[in-house]
Records
---
Amino acid sequence: MTWHILGAGSLGSLWAARLARAGLPVRLILRNRQRLEAYRQAGGLTLIEAGQAQRFAIPAELPQAHAPIHRLLLACKAYDAQQAVASIARRLAPGAELLLLQNGLGSQDAVARDLPAQRCLFVSSTEGAFRPADFQVVFAGQGQNWLGDPHDPQPPAWLSELQHAGITHQWSPDILARLWRKLALNCAINPLTVLYDCRNGELAGHSVEVASLCSELVALLQGCGQAAAAEHLHEDVLRVIHATAANYSSMHQDVAQGRRTELSYLLGYACAAARRQQLHLPQLEQLQQRLIKHLRERGLPLD
Ligand code: NAP
């Protein structure tokens, strides 16, 4: 079974290179002829791991190629997910499986709604990767990939292929709890690092604000039926702030580099969920307003 990878960015390239290295059939789907030509010029995908570079001449194609797709890793940003899937939707075989690698919440449901005849697996990843150049990826942080299907607790048989490729993973019977927890951690840390223009560790100096955000996030998770994801949230936030003290958060990096953030799928999703549940969470609301103002002042997209 061929692994089609849609989105040859940081994580998509990291998965593609490891699958190819294990001898598994992989094909990249690139957005247009220019990207395909640039990829051909590059001669393949280069994975840089522990300072060692290795190039993989993985075949690549356009969305409008004809071969049916049975397994797809969707590795674009949350705000691109629906449009990217639409570009290959007619190629998806009935019963095809998609792995949705997007951060936050909201994009996965939107994609799954568009594809009633396919199985959508949600992935929550703590691996880290970045692109020093086009079609090159640096594996920057070991981590874990949790996979799950909110509608079917049965794991697929091909998880052993991930094992074979050295992609650390675990089947999660409650993937929504994982994604909610990660979203809550993100809401407690990332927006403040943008507003204070600081590394994660410096939030230790804003402990009262972090604590009050955490208590609202706990109320939100409980109100959304995610009580398990709310347990010991504040302790976990403090642990992450400490463990990643020297890092800039992904949202901070996006803003610093003038890129669109995934705000609508993170803090924006949390605030919308609170309104749906008629929860009054003033700290979260205010945080969203401050962040939107900050993005507007820098001419960045507000969603
Ligand atoms: P990225 O490096 O920006 O890669 C996204 C890729 O998607 C780009 O290569 C882009 O193509 C491609 N793409 C977008 N729309 C497309 C379309 N319609 N057709 C074909 N390709 C399309 O993003 P990333 O860092 O891998 O992040 C992917 C997701 O994983 C995000 O939700 C992120 O938050 C999450 N995540 C990332 C990391 C990490 O360390 N990077 C860690 C955990 C979670 P172009 O190159 O042509 O623009």
Note: The CA atoms of residues 154 and 173 lie 8 Å apart.
---
Amino acid sequence: MTSASMLRNKTSGHRGSSDNGKSEESDGEWDFNWCDVGWLRENFDHAYMEEHVRINHFRNHYELTRKNLMVKNLKRFQKNLEKDMGRTEASKCDFFPSTFAMPSEYHLFVEEFNRNPGSTWIMKPVAKSQGKGIFLFRKLKDIIDWKKDRSRSEEQKDAAHLDSYVVQRYIENPYLINGRKFDLRVYVLVTSYVPLKVWLYRDGFARFSSSRFSLSTIDDKYMHLTNVSVQKTAPDYDPEKGCKWQMQQLRRYLTAKYGREVVETLFGEMDNIIIRSLQSVQKVIINDKHCFELYGYDILLDHDLKPWLIEVNASPSHTPSSQEDYEMKYGLLEDTLNVVDMEGRLTGQEKRVGGFDLMWNDGPVYTEDLNLQTFGSLCFTANTHLGEPCIHSSSMDRGWYIGHERIIPSKLDPPMSSQPGVSRPCITIKVTEMLQADKPNTAKKPVLIRPPSPRTSLPKEKDCQHFLSCEPTPKPIIRQRSRSLPSPSEKKRRKRRNAGVRFVDSLGLDLEDVRLFKSGEDPFVPHHVTFRLLMGAEMADGRHLEISLPYLKPVFAQQPGDQPDFLHRLYQQKVCLEKIQCFELGIVGITQVVNLHFEKDVRVRYSFTEWKGYTETKASWVSTITKTLEKQQFSCDAFRFHLPVPPFLQPGSVLEFAIKYKVCGTEHWDNNNGENYKLVCHNYKLTVPKECEESILHFI
Ligand code: ADP
């Protein structure tokens, strides 16, 4: 955790707190308040906030950001989960080290301590940051003395100060890179608790200790505490090199070492930490439409690449330690402002804004990937991209951006001229100065947050729609293609003008390279091409066209889920196909898997060529339900998958598939008791009415 007083003077210069505790106006109204938690404590309850006003903390943010309260809420959440959904579900919250509030839970701690002789513990003040007041110990005697001293001094203080430390199991086997310990800083933006709306930032970093890790000494803070504020004071600290890796760098390193799947599992577990920790306080945080919060999650990886939640910071440091770090933090703040969207530019449907991906919107958010390799089947994956490339606004230019699209050039501070038809105000917030507010010598400088001014240089409505899109900009080739597709009237005109033969691909683009075959040569033309050529020719003749379309029919008579031994098989195999439905365009299947862990990977392996070649497609989660088998309850997840029916499939062709469920590093298969699930291709005839001509893609 870092300085909570980061931007205090910026906001207090704007609307500060006087000695008598009442808030005073120093600069008229404010619209956006990037305040520190101290300001919030003193002023929030007295502040009147208009509808459009935004402030960067929730009133009782400390339920998550105080070390003791975070653990208290997590423990309660886990207990309730166990009661309602069973041990397996509750075990998904096993991501925080055993922690006790001191001195109130001292006796519980002693019991735990005695159960683990020789283990290392870490004592941390609950409301301090930057590694201040932290120490490690292995002997009870060390803290008995410490406790005695403290109790004596606490007698004079009020009861609120009593629970001011936590003692926590020290992670003794941290994951090391080059012998050094590190922890991760992940940025999470919550814009609402009811419903819970969470954005995960792609960038973040790993903070390394400057000394090689060893358990032989426990009082070297440079070895055991990875806070940048601690490491910066190390005698051998090199300000040029710093002690950080960007998240992308770490992701690349781990992927090169362990492969993509391992890394995806790890990052998926981090998603789990974020969501469950937020859910643990969802009912206690006072939701307020004026509030949002940018949290800094501290996560430590152990030797088995298991992530542990160390703490959540309400005021993550914005002090840059290098140019790269500056750019990252600049982008982070700018993208935060874009998500908070004071000017109402977003549609509310965005899944990505700058470097932020919407990971939770009252439920998990998925990305739909169109998988061209599997003939257009859809894959659903979690919409989280931590450590993936992040193009944020600051790396392009200063101003408002959504995705890659620039919204308004705030760098130029647009002149305050009103424009007819513009109703939303433009608010200028200088991110550079927000960043600098972290530095002690600039802390007194007030933040330049201006009252709303009429928005200028607003893009025309048509452009505006384009700007609001958060989809990545289409690749040049796709742009070129979409531009080159003729409109129906243009098509007619071209037809009249151009009576010759035109060679185009299925998108209407002229083919650049056309090969001529001499007579006698027998070029291979794929079946689906001749099929479409034929269709086109018949259409051109003005005849009604009869086409035959393939469809796949299951070889098994009954849906597996309707068979009496289904639950038995599911329990034994851990994965079992429940049902499939066949359509002209593809097959949709539902499979059940036994809920063994939060992170699951369910894939369907299929082949049209008797396994001479095969493809895999990922199934996507649909729901979790509890099933009962012989009076015993177990939790299951339903996953959905899509398999394609290629249009050129010959009657009699067979599609075979089996389902793979990967969980906790183990693979479970449902291959229909060794037979695989089989479907056979049939054809049915369809007469295409003449009017459908326009909707069919022509090759000529
Ligand atoms: P602060 O708020 O003072 O930064 P933290 O809880 O973040 O306190 O702890 C500071 C540092 O101490 C962390 O960055 C991490 O390197 C180390 N640390 C904290 N708790 C643990 C733990 N349980 N096991 C191992 N290291 C820890």
Note: The mean pLDDT is 76.
